[in-house]
Amino acid sequence: MTADRPMIATAPRRVLAVIMAAFAALIAGAAMFAVPAGAATDDIATDCTPDASTTCVSPIVLDEEREPVAGVEVTIAGEGFEAVVTTTGEGPVSVAVPTRGTYTLTVNTDTLPADTHADPTEREVRAQTGATARGAFTIGTGPAPDPEATEPETSAPAEDDAPGAAGAEGLVEEDVTVSGLPSFGQVWQQVGSGLRFGLLLALASVGLSLIFGTTGISSFSHGEQVVIGAMGGFLLINQAGLPVWVAALLIVVIGGLTGLAQDAAIWRPLRRRGTPAAQLMLVTIGLSLALQYVLQWIEAGSMRIITTNPVPTTIAGITLSRASWVSMAVALVVIIAIALLLTKTRIGRAIRAVADNRALASATGIDPDAVVRIVWVSATALAALAGLLIGISFGSFTWNLGVQLLLLMFAAVTLGGLGTAYGALVGSILIGLVVELAGLVIPSDVRYATALLILILVLLIRPQGILGSRERIG
Amino acid sequence: MPDEKTVNENETGAAVPGGDSQGAPAPSETAKRAGRDLSHVAPEVGVAKPDAILTARGVQRRFGGMTAVDVDYLEVERGAITALIGPNGAGKTTFFNLLTGFDRPNQGEWSFEGAPISHKSAARVARAGMVRTFQLTKALSRLTVLENVLLAATKNPGERMFASMFQPLWAATEARNKEKALEILERFRLDKMRDEYAGSLSGGQRKLLEMARALMTDPTMIMLDEPMAGVNPALVQSLLGHIQDLRDEGMSVLFVEHDMHAVRHISDWVVVMAEGRIVAEGPPGSVMKDQAVVDAYLGAHHDTDLGDDALLDPEVLARLEAEEEKR
Amino acid sequence: MEELLRVLTLALGELLAPATAAYALAAIGLNVHFGYTGLLNVGQAGFMLLGAYGFGIATISGAPFWVALLIAMAAGTLFAVILGLPTLKLRGDYLAIVTISAAEIIRMLGRSTLFDDYTGGSAGIRGGDYKGSFQELSFLPDGRTMIGPLEYLNNGSDSWWTRLFAWSLVILALVVVWLLTRSPWGRVLKGVREDEDAVRALGKNVYSYKMQALILGGVLGSLAGIIFVLPGAIAPDAMGRTMTFWVWTVMLLGGAATLFGPVLGSMLFFFVYMIVRAGMRTDVMEFLPIPTQNVDHVAGVLVGVTLMLIVIFRPQGILGNKKELALDAR
Known about the structure:
The structure holds 3 protein chains of 3 kinds. Chain A is of the alpha+beta class. Helix content of chain A is 49%, strand content 14%.
């Protein structure tokens, strides 16, 4: 996993870094959208520029100093297409491919400079319409793979956190070019993307907030619960070919069942023993570790739920894929339903009562055990649904989607007010907007950092969050 | 540790900018005599005391729309046992938390030994000589009983990070503290448990341990939050005795209590709170008959246990205590 | 049989491996946080990565070894202060959320294109760029040495010298932590762990003690980060959330709030981890329906399950006190 990190090759890097602010998007460590720079001639055109109907694939060969290497032949094959290109020293070569899909890039090792090797020599990239899929190869000196890179000690946990923003891909489906100040149109577009992200994030974090409110646990495994939903989508829709709506229902049920099973097997017995919340939090860390390896076991690569090309749809000047709009609508409806459920129904009021004061709720005849069970089931079911919708609207995802989302969910929930259900909604939307708008002014690979920065600032200024009360924090 | 105590008082005295009406703290001997005889003080709300150690003015604490504490004026006499009583939800504990720096008021100020302490942190309030205990006892479970008390010692150079690595710098202080801690434990009859984890103590023993810990800090004023709550009746009498001893040694005691009999038994002055306000003040004998107090308790559905006087009968207590010890 | 011996030798090698020392040191730091003070630091890998960057970048800029070491420690201190300021006055969960987030920020910033010139972006910093000053310190003669079944170069990346240095640092940390935790200072920390309000009521500045503990543990984490990258390279993606969780597993396995718990935990963890991983790849285990490429995933699942089981059934770890467990059961 370590070798296929995306790399920035061209100099001067600082300039590129700025351009990256507008263009960069990472797909699960394999592909990268970037601005195609210089052009080179070969037997086919290598100056592909992505637009609404063009898909580009760009192989990059770098040396140990991460400078581009010229004269290396790379074969691009896949989806019934095959071409051989030769790298140049000036900039990446980019080839237009007929359709989005998976392409294999193979380095012709005979064309490598003397006494060097590439490891690996073959790489898969997923090309998306309107973007450039980059595949980078690093060549090292000497015939054998760099021993340092494969040392067992240092590589042991290296499988964690494969690069960057799995969830990020779709967020920049509609690349915005920024030179100087962003235009109103760009800002507006990012507001749309931010709302989409915020709504989907809210769907995921409501459960986290409810769990915290009723049990006092900061659940570190909630990110993986989201990925369960996304991966369910991949398995049921992409692999098994079920209709989306049938699969969605199944996924919600499966998600809920994982919550029910956890409550029965782990949380209820531990509640009976009166295990302190800090210890329960450590259990969720173990659960998170176990789940992320299971997910990685099932599929370590990038996954797509819906394989057909997204249909761009413009509403109020914001262009998102149709699937995104549908996902947003679903998320909105479900969130409103949750709000109604919490305020209008007996069980909803019971949940809020337990979150407010467990002892008091129990004294008024509410069975906290039953309430907590319902909370676990609904939180995991909602997380699964959120995962499915995120997976669909962001195009593709990997098993480590949960890592990024968990942090953003924590930030959202804390921002809104830890343990308050509406707080999760407000916080999520704000985080979604901030993250997307930040992408306009800073490199997109660090825009998640803005959310976490906000988290720290909130704790400094108003630790109870926007909707929380002072008494809950001490 | 008489010399340490002097240091303590000098410090708080010096902290007063330009002094105040009370002047320097009175020597404890005079305080004792003056404090215990409050019969000539008028039993009315907000009355001035002959030698107040704590003075609170316009203290308010609101939670959302509810005003939990709204105290116009209160003086607490030095060297006396003052009880703070009132029905459930009267705001006693909240007021207590405010005074000791564990909660922040919406408005109001108070001074201790003439120095304003209303915006000080809990730790600084304690260092000024006003030390509290908690309603739900906070025994440090995974520390031994002795460690619990040693922890309370003040001015230990070994509690500074870098100095702590060099034992010779603090060994002498530690030895002295240990001696003092063992004396205090003996006094509270906890010396046999000195090496047990505090978590293994009974409820009553934990209350005693908390008191021992507070005593270890050489306080001028001890604030006890419901010292009798959850204590085996057999231990109540000895707890009350310990509280009286504290006063007799010159400390001022303010305690929150539910149990009227305990209050009547040992307090020199009683302050009654209801719905956040102070509704009456006076000596224990007369204040209970005050119409405002009766109303306050009746208004709260009379949920206060007016109790079984027999429990305070020394004979009954002796028997209960014997039974407790057998177990 | 020969294969089993090979697996055993590999596992024995793990006992002394620099990474084992690094995890032990990181866990000693985490033990100061959680074991002694009760602070929920879920971002120890952030301290480690920052220490590694601090050391690596300082060395590349020309700082001598000991200065680079100090810079790494200063980076850890600063990080602890920044994380502690907003959170140490709040309930413990907030520290947990902020530390895991901040550790992730460090990783994101490290691998981002923003600081590419310094951190090498996602590719990280090659070991050769910063190892020189460390390896020059070695007083060992060149060559190879075999001790028991273990044979390494005397000097170089994965050498006896690296091991000697790494474990010396661990022993030094143990001495410091031992001196500190048996002192009145350590007693205050334990008091804070048990109930910070009670300690506050006794006039101690709890916030300051928590901050001191956070800094001390964080600095140990930064040093652990240096050890971790001395034999290899600085790769931000190898020092993420999983690493933090492993450090927790190591500490809880050995026993939180015990002096030797983290060291024992680290040695045992990596010994067993290697046996499981290498063992599953041997022919002996061919009957298992686990393809070779999934061995690491299975091992990872086992780590997670182990962590859960420890926390649930033996929260005091191997070296923990039975009496304390009895208290927990009450």
